[in-house]
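Protein Record: Sequence and Backbone Structure Tokens
======================================================
Tokens: labelled as protein backbone structure tokens, with as many entries as the chain has residues.
Question of interest: how does this chain fold, as expressed in backbone structure tokens?

___
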Amino acid sequence: MTEIQRTTRETNIKLVLDFGTGEARVNTGVPFLDHMLVTLARYSGLDIKLDASGDLKHHIIEDVAIAIGTAVREITPANAARYGEQTIPMDDALVQACIDVGGRPFYRGRLPSVLYEHWMRSFSDNAKATLHIRVIRGRDRHHIVEAAFKALGVALRTALAEKDSVFSTKGAVSFGGR
């Protein structure tokens, strides 16, 4: 379990994140973000308790992504499977997420929402994860973004699973301080 408190002049974020059953209690004041985080929790199997407030929707979305990315980095087991991939269909949308939680931040994607594209980049940077989101098809922005969060959730579930040994030729991943 990890607890993140992020307070800036723009936002106040309180987050508890842990391995669990995918339970979520989320209150950001941004209904669609709340919906995406409940979805992420459910599909990843991570329990998320989050309270966030702030001045602008953009700042709340960005700082929540920073907090969740930081929390994922903190709970990543040294012997994590590291890699996860999932393609999710949702009505007209088909979206793939591929992730490596091995400590090398990189994001490539193109979601039809600047705010949620920024969420994915901020999450990836702070989780120190390589994340590729590929929209294979879709017209409805809601369906595309939701399929991306579902695909990320399942990919994270796979990547964070503990294995019998460290899955790297370089040894265990260390993020310093843990």
User: Anything to note?
Assistant: The radius of gyration is 15 Å. Residues 141-160 form the longest helix (20 residues).
